[in-house]
Specification:
Elements: E1 9-14, H1 18-28, E2 33-38, H2 41-50, E3 55-59, H3 67-77, E4 83-87, H4 95-100, E5 105-108, H5 113-123, H6 129-133
Parallel strand pairs: 1-2, 1-3, 3-4, 4-5
């Protein structure tokens, strides 16, 4: 999903830990994204149904609807929405499950700032140099 450079890009961060959500927002603040927040997978789905979102960053383990469970509903609400899943319990054995659910990428928490920036920019179809120069 490529967004014209003149349009505002909106990132959804869905994580049940508010400190992590705010930390991610701080890490990505200078990329020029509007960042919206959800505390659960269900809340993320509801938000995407009423607000255009260009990329979603989803915690894999949220109460109720997990990040993996949310992906199909998010993609129904916003066709082609790139969904990046991240997890504090990251395990290489989970990667096939995460990617087959439709995730753009699967990252380990705590995520390396440059890896997060590069992955988000890549999901938006933007050049990686913004991840370093900003």
């Amino acid at each position: 999903m490529s967004i014209p450079p003149t349009l505002l890009r909106r990132l959804l961060v869905a994580d049940d830990d508010s400190e992590v959500r705010m930390g991610v927002a701080d890490l990505l603040d200078d990329l020029g994204l509007e960042i919206v927040h959800a505390a659960t997978g269900t809340e993320a789905i509801q938000l995407v149904r009423r607000t255009p979102v260009h990329v979603a960053l989803l915690d894999m383990h949220m109460p109720g609807c997990t990040g993996i469970e949310a992906i199909p509903q998010l993609k129904l609400a916003a066709a082609g929405l790139p969904c990046i899943v991240y997890s504090g319990r990251w395990c290489i054995e989970h990667e096939p499950e995460v990617l087959s659910a439709g995730a753009f990428a699967y990252l380990k928490k705590p995520v390396e700032p440059i890896a997060l920036r590069r992955t988000v920019l890549s999901a938006l179809g933007l050049p990686f140099d913004r991840a370093i120069n900003n």
